[in-house]
Design a protein that fits this description.
Shape: globular
Number of domains: 3
CATH topology of the largest domain: Immunoglobulin-like
InterPro entries: Cu-oxidase-like_N (IPR011707), Cu-oxidase_2nd (IPR001117), Cu-oxidase_C (IPR011706), Cu-oxidase_fam (IPR045087), Cu_oxidase_CS (IPR033138), Cu_oxidase_Cu_BS (IPR002355), Cupredoxin (IPR008972)
Low-confidence stretches: 1-119
Number of strands: 33
Keywords: Copper, Metal-binding, Oxidoreductase
Distance between the termini: 39 Å
Strand content: 25-35%
Family: Belongs to the multicopper oxidase family.
CATH architecture of the largest domain: Sandwich
CATH class of the largest domain: Mainly Beta
Protein name: Multicopper oxidase
Structural class: alpha+beta
Bound molecules: copper (II) ion
Helix content: 10-25%
Number of helices: 11
GO molecular function, one term: copper ion binding
Length: about 700
């Protein structure tokens, strides 16, 4: 059984021989599991390799493009609808070009954001015409099936808008299966029917049908992304960036901005991954499917030597070209499914200025960790002697899956790209840089949001405090593995009162928001909807308790939230109850720490074990807190566990999904819903497309199809 590699090991190996040794070790391990893995899959065809892949997909190094060029490329496709989209976009760019003169390809001559400017954005309509399409792609050397937009890649379909703009996205489903889109991190204030998760805010869009996503970007700015929210289709490539600019964004000046999209990459279609994962027959241990490789802006390095004789073309790493002596904003995002990334650039500090669409006081580190769906903007200064430098994104850092006995053939968890100072030849060998002896790895709880209109509610106790626990199990009556959510609420006498235990499942058809809107207080939701009702403007604390040896990145739709506390402890009573900051970090995905566990058995350590704070990846809370502690749920303090306490204000009427962003886990039921301000939900305008889409989905079902 392979040993897992701690973040510290990877970190100290930054650019050194040690990293190379780790990589070699991985490669040798993956080659020997070839037979086992294919057997494990029960004879199912695991590899989707096509004979023509070498000739069809061979290509040279790709150069980075500034956002505008990428946008133009994203829509350079055929079709009438697409033409209209291109036209709208071109119009928008012309307007931009009045004030921004285009310089050399990889840089904007004028910063997109100028904090000193007092000019307000003039809101406009951003009208897009997107069709979901199926195609074959080769991102990492192996050709596989994929979904994309307008015949192109999802990661190239970039939504770029300004604060205050109205998005009008005409979305047509040209797939053979239903789909829907979600705009991650967008609050959808008063436009909850545009949020996207099927069964929650809309019906699935049947094949051949369309939905118009029409909403205004209120006061948000920063780095977001869009992705499919039907099944696990984002795995298949239906995901891409959603960037919101604002001239008044409170970040330091920079010269150019670039997207760095990180994701794990599976060679198998999401449906078969999901079927395999959930079935107790094929997956009795409940392991998540492990990806084959990782991508940086759609380019990865699958280990082709692991599949001799099969079509596979080793890819040249992605090249990010930046002029010397400039400051660049990199919008780094993890749009993947399962793995967290450690991201760094040899010889360069990263100044964090934005987290999940929240601008923060500049904070300098050497590495950032991005869990699934998390984003950071970092400022990178090209202040070294011109050369090439390695950009590193590693997914191999100590989560339990890294010690699974079998890894996919050719598995490569390390992705690299090149930071190229122009005009150096990007093909020149990257400079070897001595890594810092003690690299600074970002702890997001050290970040402080810049002053904004969003006020942190400083009341010590929330109006509603919810304890959210969960576990994965396959009960005797189940054919499928399920996640079970157990919810309690804190009563005024400081005891936990049970709310419900459920495995989340959205309705196939009648979306929860439609039921709430149409029926109001007469609505009696199915227990599987896992609903918690909130009144307008209540301050809500959610304590997520993780008895699992893996991290879980939790996300709430319709809100970002403050992180009050996160770490590991051996008693709920030791979780800090007093606020430790009056300006805590706010974001929309929180990493809920794994339980400290036995590295061989993966069992959470008993509560009386000692966990060393000095070597732990997480904050360790082992001291009794001052004041009244949180009560201990009965019989629960027997092991160490990971947790996060987050706070949000119920100021956004709607039905909002809260879930683990590892979509396998959501499929298993790891999620709940907040029904926020029922009276206000009933006042929401329900666009005609909502009922129309449900009717079309029903018709599709009537034709003998299944959801
Ligand atoms: Cu999870």
């Amino acid at each position: 059984m392979p040993t897992s590699v701690s973040p510290i090991e990877i970190a100290t190996g930054l650019g050194s021989d040690e990293t190379l040794l780790i990589e070699d070790k991985d490669v040798s391990r993956t080659t020997v599991v070839q037979e086992k893995k294919e057997k494990l899959r029960g004879g199912e065809r695991y590899w989707r390799v096509y004979e023509d892949s070498e000739t069809e997909w061979a290509e040279g190094p790709r150069r980075s493009l500034p956002l505008k060029k990428l946008l133009a490329a994203a829509f350079a496709c055929v079709g009438v609808a697409v033409f209209v989209g291109l036209f709208c976009l071109a119009q928008r760019q012309e307007a931009d070009d009045d004030s921004h003169e285009e310089a050399e390809p990889a840089s904007h001559s004028v910063p997109l954001n100028d904090p000193s400017s007092t000019t307000q954005n003039t809101p406009k309509n951003v009208e897009l015409f997107w069709t979901a399409t199926a195609q074959r792609v080769n991102f990492d050397g192996v050709t596989v099936h994929s979904y994309g937009i307008n015949g192109g890649n999802g990661h190239d379909a970039i939504i770029d808008a300004n604060t205050g703009d109205r998005i009008i996205l005409h979305f047509t489903n040209n797939l053979t299966v239903p789909t829907a889109l979600h705009f991650h991190g967008l609050s959808q204030n008063s436009s909850g029917f545009m949020d996207g998760p099927t069964g929650v805010t809309q019906c699935p869009i049947a094949p051949g049908r369309s939905y118009v996503y029409n909403f205004t970007i209120d006061d948000q700015v920063g780095s977001f992304f869009w992705h499919a929210h039907y099944g696990l289709q984002s795995i298949d490539g239906l995901r891409g960036p959603f960037i919101i600019h604002d001239r008044n964004e409170n970040v330091p000046k920079y010269d150019t901005e670039h997207l760095i999209q990180l994701s794990d990459w599976y060679h198998e279609p999401s449906q078969s991954l999901s079927d395999w994962y959930l079935s107790s027959k094929t997956n009795p241990d409940g392991n998540e499917p492990v990806f084959q490789s990782g991508l940086i802006n759609g380019i990865g390095q699958f280990n082709c030597t692991a599949i001799p004789g099969r079509p596979c073309t080793q890819k040249t790493p992605y090249v990010l070209t930046i002029a010397p002596k400039t400051a660049s904003r990199l919008r780094v995002m993890n749009t993947g499914t399962f793995a967290a990334f450690l991201f760094s650039i040899d010889g360069h500090e990263l100044t964090v200025v934005e987290v999940d669409g929240v601008t923060v006081e500049p904070y300098v580190v050497d590495m950032i960790s991005l869990n699934v769906a998390q984003r950071y903007s970092v400022i990178v200064r090209t202040n070294r002697a011109p050369s090439n430098f390695q950009i590193r994104a590693s997914m191999y850092h100590g989560d339990t899956w890294t010690s699974m006995p079998e890894m996919p053939i050719g598995f490569n968890p390390h992705v690299t790209a090149i930071l190229n100072y122009s005009p150096i030849d990007p093909a020149e060998k990257p400079l070897r840089v001595t890594p810092p002896p003690h690299p600074r790895i970002l702890d997001d709880t050290n970040l402080s949001p810049t002053p904004s209109s969003v006020q942190f509610p400083t009341q010590p106790s929330a109006d509603v405090t919810v304890l959210y626990e969960f576990n994965f199990e396959t009960r005797a009556t189940d054919l499928y593995q399920k996640a079970y959510n157990t919810l309690h609420t804190l009563s005024t006498n400081n005891t936990w009162t049970p709310l419900f235990t459920s495995s989340f499942q959205a309705p196939k058809m009648e979306p929860l928001l439609v039921s709430a809107h149409d029926l109001g207080h007469g609505w009696n939701p199915d227990p599987a909807a896992s609903t918690i009702f909130l009144a307008r403007n209540q301050v809500v604390d959610v304590m997520i308790r993780n008895n699992d040896p893996g991290e879980h990145p939790f996300h709430i739709h319709g809100h970002d939230f403050w992180i009050l506390s996160t770490g590991v402890t051996n008693s709920v009573s030791k979780i800090p109850r007093a606020l430790s900051s009056l300006n805590p970090v706010r974001r929309d995905v929180v990493t809920v720490a794994a339980c400290p566990h036995d590295l061989v058995t993966s069992a959470c350590l008993p509560a009386n074990a000692t966990v060393d704070a000095a070597t732990s990846k997480y904050h360790v809370f082992s001291e009794t807190v001052e004041g009244t502690p949180y009560p201990v749920p009965s019989g629960q303090d027997d092991v160490w566990f990971g947790y996060a306490v987050i706070r949000f204000v119920a100021n956004n009427p709607g039905v909002w999904l809260m879930h683990c962003h590892i979509t396998f886990h959501l499929e298993a039921g790891l999620g709940i819903t907040f029904v926020e301000s029922m009276y206000d939900i009933q006042q929401l305008e329900k666009p005609g497309v909502v009922a129309q889409t449900c009717g079309e989905a029903q018709q599709w079902l009537n034709e003998g199809n299944v959801l």
